[in-house]
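User: Here's a chain of 203 residues. Predict its fold as tokens.
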Amino acid sequence: VLCWVGLFLSKAAADLLLLLTAADLKELVLTHPLPRLPPRSPLGTFNNQEGQDSCDSCPPGQYANSLGSRSCKTCPAGTFSAGKANTCTSCRVGYYSPAGAGACSPCKPGTYTSSARAATCTLCPKGSQCPTPATSTPRACPAGYFSAKDGSTLCTPCPVNFYQSSTGQTKCLPCAVGTNTRGLTGQKACQAVRITTLRRSVL
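Assistant: Prediction complete.
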């Protein structure tokens, strides 16, 4: 004689059941229904206490990917969940998250991440700039500008009488003798100095 999960049958009771007819067994089941097992916690929820009539939702930053979970798991770094989740979602490029995050955060200006599922952001390299939040690709400094340190938000224009003809540079070059930038900054090239002569008037 088979039993339901969680129940048992003594030898005396089993012997008695063998003497019952099919009609007697049907009447027994109708008048004494067997208890049903409680449903298991659905995905994204958990239950760690006996006697509860409902399950609790996993909080933000956590998930439950199996039925009947007794606890929720923490989302790994580079992912997030908004709550009651059965899986964690990867952060997109330009965003990052530590472990257990309820949302991804944009990389701050001066930093970037070019890959999804990033745990941290990287400082913008020398010779480039990361001017906006959620930067995914650093921008090379344009000609006439430079960046000498990591983590630059904006590139710096070349000072007066200095120039830079290439992009993505970390320094500017001084103008050659006989040239200047005519008092301007951020120049790609220097200009030849104009020599003016004063003519002596003849009386």
